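Q: Here's a chain of 305 amino acids. Please give me its 3D structure as C-alpha cells.
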Amino acid sequence: MLHYQNDLKIWPEFIEICERRNLLAHTDGIVSTRYLAVCREHNVELKDIEVGRRLSINTKYYERAVSVIFELGIKLTQVVWRKLAPSEIGVAADELNELAYRLIVKRKYIEAITFLRFGLVEMKKHGEEATRKRMVVNLANAEKLGGNKEEAEKVLSSEDWSAAADNFTICAAAIRDDVQTVVHLMKAVVSAGHLSASDFQAWPVFEKVRSEPAFIEAFEREFGEKIVADLETPRKLDAEAEEENQAVSQTARSRGLGHRPAAAEGYQNPQVEVAFIVDRVPRGLRVSTFSGPDVPRTKGEASAG
C-alpha cells in the first residue's frame, strides 16, 4: 500500500502545487499565512517566499507540476485498482509496464524508471511472471538508454536468464550489446512467432545493436529486406495524440476551464505528459498524452521491447 508522506518523494511538491493553485484562484497569487503553514507542515522548501509576495507560474514550474500530478495519478490509480479488483492485478501490472514502455519510446527514461521501480519494488504482486520479466527488461533498457549502463547491468544480473524464454534472453543480450547472442537467437524467436521484422526495427531494446553489421546481415538474411527505422508509426501516433489534445482542450473550454489567472504570467502551453483515466476503472487504464508517439502494445508475450 502507498503511504503518501512516507513513500512519495513528490508529496511535498504536490502539496505546494495544490496550495499555489488556491492562491491563484482566491488571492491572485498573493502568498497567505495559510499557504506558508500548510507547506511547512508538509516539509515544502520555501526559499525566499513570504506573506504578501505574488507567486506566478512559468513554463518550468508548469512542466514540473504536470510531471508530479502525472506520477501521483498513475501510482494512485495502480494502488486503488489493485485494492478494489485484486483479480485484475495482472492487468494493472501489464498497463503499468505498457506505460513505461511508451515513455521509453519517447526517451522519457527517468519517468519510465520511476514507474518500473514502483511496479517491481513497491507493488509486491505482478500478475504473471512474464509481466514481471518484461518490466525488468524495460527497466534495464531505460537505465542503459538513460546513460547508466552500470545500473542496467545490475538490474539484468538480478535475474536468471538461463531459464527464460528466448524472447526475453534476446532482449537481455541486446541490452548488454551482445550482438552475437542476438544474431544467434534471431531465427528461433522469429520461427516461434515471438518477434517480427517490425519489432526488430522499432523496439527500443534493439536501438544500439541495429547499427551493427552482424545484426544488419542477420536481419536481411532472415526477412529478405533492408532494415529501416520505423518512422511512420510515430508520425501517425503523434497526429492521433494531437487530435486528442485538441478534443480535451475544447472540452475544457466548454466547461469554463480555460480561464487563466492574471498571476500566471509567463505561462505557455509546452508539450507535456498528462494522464487521463477516460474509460473503465478499475477494469482498465488508458493513457492519453499531449506529446510524442504512443506506441501500441506489442503483441503477445514478446512485449518486452
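Q: Can you summarize the key feature?
A: DSSP finds 13 helices and no strands in the chain.
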